[in-house]
Amino acid sequence: MKAGLTQGNDMRKQLLAGTALAALGVIAFQATAHAATIDDVMKRLDKLERENAELRAKVNGQQAYVRRDKDGKPVVESSVVTHAKPAPSPVVAADHTILGMPVKAAGALGPLIDNTTVQLYGHFDLSADLFNNSVFDQGTKLGISSNLSYFGFRVRHNLAPYGFEGWAAVAQMEAQIDVAAAPNERAALGSRDSYLGMEGPWGAIKAGKTQTPYKLASAAMDPFSGTLGDYNSIMGNTGGDNRAEFDWRMDHAVWYESPIWSGFQFSALFSPGQNYAQDNSDFSFGDVGQCNGASTRGSGSNFPTIALGAQGCNDGSFGNAYSAAATYRNSGFTAIAAYELHEQTNRQGDDGTGVVGGGPIILPDGSIVSTGIHNEWAAKLGGGYRFNDGLGDLQINAIYEWIRREVTPAQQPFNERSKDDIFVSVTQNIGKWAVSGSYTHANNTPGNPATLSVNTAALAPLATIQANLFSDAANQYAVGVRYHFSSWASWYFVASELTQGTGAHYCLGASGHGYQVCGRDAANDTIGGATLKAATTGLTLDF
Amino acid sequence: MDMTPPPAYIAQADTDQPDAPVEPTPIKIDVAKYIPDTAITVTMIVSLDSAAASALVYAPGDEKHGTVFKGRRAIDEVRLAGPVLFIKLYGATTYDIQYITYRMP
To answer: Most CB atoms within 10 A, among A279, A334, A506, A525?
Structure first.
C-alpha cells in the first residue's frame, strides 16, 4: 500500500513537471511567433496554473478510485464499473447498545464482533379473557393472560471471510416471558427454542431444544394460535387436559432443517431419552426436577414432589423421540406431512402400577385399569390454499391427524390416547382486517382409564363417571377477527366453544394460552363432558 | 523534452468516472411464493458475481434495518414485513437468492 502511494506521488510529480514544461514550450513558441507582451505571457501563465491546479485536484480525487496491484500498477476496473461510480457499500447503523456493545434491537443485525451479528427479538401477546367452564362452582370469570410471550437473542457468525462461503455458525437463546403471571421455572432463560448449530447451503444442523418439526409443520394453519381458540385443545393432544404431547418443544435434541428447494422443505429431529430409569419413569440426564415430555411445573411434571430415583415420571414420560416433517409451498398452495414417535411412553400413573405407594385402579364396573408403557406416535397430512376472492386474500386450511398408542388388545378399553382429529380453518383478509373461523374435531377413543365427576357439588368429589362407558369425542368452534396496525402489531378478538362427550376432559387454551380453561371445580375434580366457553381480546407486538 | 503521456489509468478515470455516486436501483423480490405470509424472518444465501460486491436486502420501509450480504456467497437473516423484499446491489450486476428457512412468530 505504501509502495502504491509512493508510486502515485512520483507519477503525480511527473505529470506536473510535464505540464509545466509543456507550458514553457508553448510560451517560448508563442513568444517567437507573435512577439507577445509580458502581460500576455503572465496572463497565459496564470491560466496554465489554474488549469494545472484543476488537473491536480482531479488527479488527487481519482486516486481513491484507482486500485493497484502489488507492484503499484493501476488495475483497470472497467469490467466491474462501466457506467457509474459505485455507491459506497451499505452501512446499516447500529442504533442501540447494550453495555456499550452495538446491538441491533429492531430485527436486522448489527456488528458485535468481526463478521458476527446479534439480533434481539421478542413477541408480546397480552389478552383479557372472559370464560365459563359450566362447572357448578365456577361461574363466569375474567382473566388477564400473557400468551406465548417471549424474548430472545440470536447470534450469527459469518464464516465466509474464513473460507466457508455461505456458511455461518448460529446460536440462539429464547425465554418465555410471563408478562402477566408470576414467573417461575417455565420462564427461565433458555426455556424456549435455544440452540447452537451450523447453517449453510445444505441447510442447518442444530442442537439444543426446539419446537418439533411435527409441531411446526402446521403451526401457520391455526389462526388462533396462543388464544383460547388454539387448535391444540384437541390437535396433537392425547387424552385431553392441558398438554398437547404432539405439539411439543423437545429438550436435549439435535435436528436438521433442509433449505427450501423450489418450495419443498424437510426437517428431522432426534431426542435421546437419556433417562435414569429403564422404563423412563425418572428424569433425563440434565433434566433433574423435570420429567421428560412434561410441561414445566405443569401437566405431567410432578414437580417438585418427586426426587431423583423416586420414579415418579409416569404421566407421559417417554424415551427416545423422533420427529420429521415435509412441507411444500408454492404460490398459494401448501401441503404438509409430518410424523412423530415417542418411544416407551410411561402411562403407569393412569393404572397405578409401578408407582411408589400406588396400586391397581379398579373402575366402577370392576375392570382393572392397565395402561403400561408403550410407544405413542402421531401423523398428519394437511393442505392449504390462498387466493384472492375479490375482497382480499382468502386462506383455507385443513388437517387430518392420526394419534396412536400401541397398546395390547386387552388394554384398549383403557386407551384414551388413540384417536383421529380433524381441523379446518378459513381466514378472509380485507385490507388490514382478517376474519377467521375454525373447527376442530376429536373422534372417540377406544377406551379411557379415568373416572370423572358429575357436575354437582354433592357428586363431584366421588368421581363416579366411568369414562370408557361414554363418548369422549369433542368439537371446538372458534371465530375471531384481527386488525393489523402494522406487520408487527395487531389487535384480536376470539370467541371459542368446546363441547365434549361425558367421557372427555379437554381444555381450552392448551399449549399456547397463558393458562387453560378446563372443566375443573374448586377441588380440582375433573367434570366429565363440561362445555367450555371463552371470549378473549388482546394485543400483540413483535420486534 | 520528455513528453510522456499520462498513465493509462488517468485517461480511464477521466472518461469512466462520473461526478457523483449513483445509488443502486432497488429490485423487488417476491418471497410469498415459498415463504408463509405469517413468517417474520427469512434466512437466505445471497450469491453475487464479485467478491468485492455487497447487497442490501430489506423489507419495504425498513431499509435502515436491512441486512447486508458481502462477498460472493453469504448467509444471513432478513426481517419480513409482508410478501415483498427489496435488494440493492453494490458492485454486482447479478445476484441469486437461495432460501434456507424462515421463522414464525
So the answer is: A506
